[in-house]
Amino acid sequence: MLKEIYRLGSLLGDFRSLARPENIDLHPTSMPQLVGEFLNTQAVEYTSRGIAVEQDFPADLPMVMADSRRMKQVLLNLCKNAVDAMAEGGTLTIRGRHLAGTVSLEITDTGVGIPDDFEVFQLFKTTKEHGTGLGLSIVRQIISAHQGTISYRSEPGNGTTFTISMPVDSTHSGQFDSSYRSNDSMTRKIS
Ligand SMILES: Nc1ncnc2c1ncn2[C@@H]1O[C@H](COP(=O)(O)OP(=O)(O)O)[C@@H](O)[C@H]1O
Ligand SMILES: [Mg+2]
Q1: Nearest ligand for residue 133 CA
Q2: Beta-carbon-side half-sphere exposure of residue 191 (alpha carbons within 13 Å)
Q3: Does residue 185 sit within a domain?
Q4: Three-state SS for 50?
Q5: Residue 47 and residue 39: Cα distance in Å, rounded?
Q6: DSSP code of 175?
Q7: What is the DSSP letter of 122?
Q8: CATH code assigned at 133
Q9: pTM for the whole thing?
Q10: Is residue 145 part of a domain?
Q11: How far apart are CA 53 and CA 48, in angstroms?
């Protein structure tokens, strides 16, 4: 009975954030900083579950336009799934990359993996006794509100990587702002 109440509680919590139609609040955001803040709140729990946490970010990763509260929800849902997949412990790696106008974040686990024919993004799809099957639907909704994309690759028995990609913030990273770029190269030519 109590378990059912807990389950309903998390179901309602998840459902509320899925249904909430409010606009997202975008600001220039540093992904390494956001991930660092997120891990400050979770790393102790992950470590206590036998999971090593690793981060890998290039020093010059551009900013993205993001709603930091919602991106932390994305990280929480993806990392929670990663940790759930590593019941015997393992390694959780969060890696940032910069590729052609996008910043991507890879969340890699060394867990059980996802079978080929399993539709993870399907609403209410869960393999967990107390799962809601809403976590990845919420993630996908938030990422698409950021004009981003999400994909994953998995090797059953070896682990899974979820990759989210978001457009870089062109107004705050000079090299992607064309007016900035031409000014820059002008200055360089003259001097
Ligand atoms: N990193 C992962 N490794 C293995 N399975 C995963 C992973 N992420 C998601 N899944 C599978 O996808 C299902 C749906 O995930 P999600 O939408 O977050 O719902 P929930 O976590 O409540 O089950 C999970 O129950 C699990 O079977
Ligand atoms: Mg989940």
Answers
A1: 1
A2: 6
A3: yes
A4: coil
A5: 11
A6: G
A7: S
A8: 3.30.565.10
A9: 0.85
A10: yes
A11: 11
Residue with tokens 């309602």: 12
For residues 34 and 66, the answer to whether their CB atoms sit within 8 Å is yes
The C-alpha atoms of residue 135 and residue 17 are separated, in whole angstroms, by 10
Most confident of 15-19, 57-61, 169-173, 181-185: 57-61
Ligand 1: does its nearest atom lie under 6 Å from the Cβ of 85? yes
Q: Answer whether residue 120 is part of any domain.
A: yes
Domain residues for the domain of 73 are: 26-190
**Which residues neighbour ligand 2 (ion) by CB within 5 Å?**
81, 135
169 lies in a domain? yes
Total of domains in the chain: 1
pLDDT at 20: 60
Beta sheet of 90-99, edge-to-edge order: 51-56, 90-99, 102-109, 159-167, 149-155
The pLDDT score that the predictor gives to residue 23 is 76
110 lines ligand 1 (CB under 6 A): no
Atom of ligand 1 nearest to the CA of 14: 22
Residue 154 burial by Cβ neighbours in a 10 Å radius (0-12, 13-18, 19+) = buried
Condensed to tens digits (0 to 9), the pLDDT of residues 34-75 reads 999 999 999 999 999 999 999 999 999 999 999 999 999 999
142-164: average pLDDT: 96
- Write the DSSP assignment of 126-139 as a string of letters: --STT--S-HHHHH
